[in-house]
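Q: Got a minute? One more chain.
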Amino acid sequence: MFKPVLIILVLFPVCLLVDYFNGTRWLAGYTQFIREWWNLLLVLLLCKTIFPKAKNYKYDIMEDMRVNQYLAEIQRYFNTPYVPPIMLLYLKNPPGSIRPTDYAYINDTFYRLVVNSFRDRVYVLQDFDSIEPWSRPTYFDVIGIKNITKCLLYLLVPFIWIFFVHFILEQSMLKDWPLLTLPFTLATFQRGLFMIEAFIKFNPLRLDRELKENDCMIQVTWRDAFPDREVGITFVRAYYLEMERRQRCELTIQGLTIPDHFPEWKNPHFAPFPYPSKTIPSWGSEYEPYYEKKSMELNTQLSTKNSNVVSFPKIN
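A: Always. Here it is, folded:
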């Protein structure tokens, strides 16, 4: 906003100099133009300032939705012996920033959240009481009542304001002082649309499709996710490749030479190594017999429960 205002102000002495040397009346005409159209010019300047910030809000909402969806999905598998599919997805394909800038990509912390949640669980010998995940929370639970309320307000308030100006104050939104409120009215409505876009992007059906496309709709036990197994090796490779990509991006921004070999990256926003230790826990060899025994017990209990269900005939 500073540059357009500066240009408008600089044109005053420019017109004055032109009038002085050429005997014209540019300054008077320019002054008259500003007096007649200052409100429209101000609206355009406000739009130029407000709308880019509203777009940043779109990325903030999408990042919040991604975190909410991730946390809700991994919670479903808390009492099972399996790595949550959404965790598999992000460990095999490290996520970057939703905000489309190199700086945001380098310093995005969502991958760190994923890796930390994996580290907190992978070497823990935890009992499980089910081989099936809990039911997926409703879509509205993932979105959250707070976000739903904000979205409705962003969509309704502009219409309420326009109704108030037009029918109560009996003025036009395109004239006088109501015109100055137009950028804020449109930006508020735009925020509501951005929230709807975020809700659509992170809906459960889209997640299931993405999991299937990346072969993540499979049952992987925590033991199979250790670094001595194929899945664990994939996680480690993906981790180092993501580290290299971000370092390469950082060096490119700084205009530095990209080396053939990259050292350990010390960026505090990046994820730690996916495993608390490169040494396999002592109970690693005991897990699979325990898993098989426990799974058989749970399957037997489930079969017994289903066989005890009595079917009643329908009453016509």
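A: The mean pLDDT is 85.
Q: Perfect, thanks.
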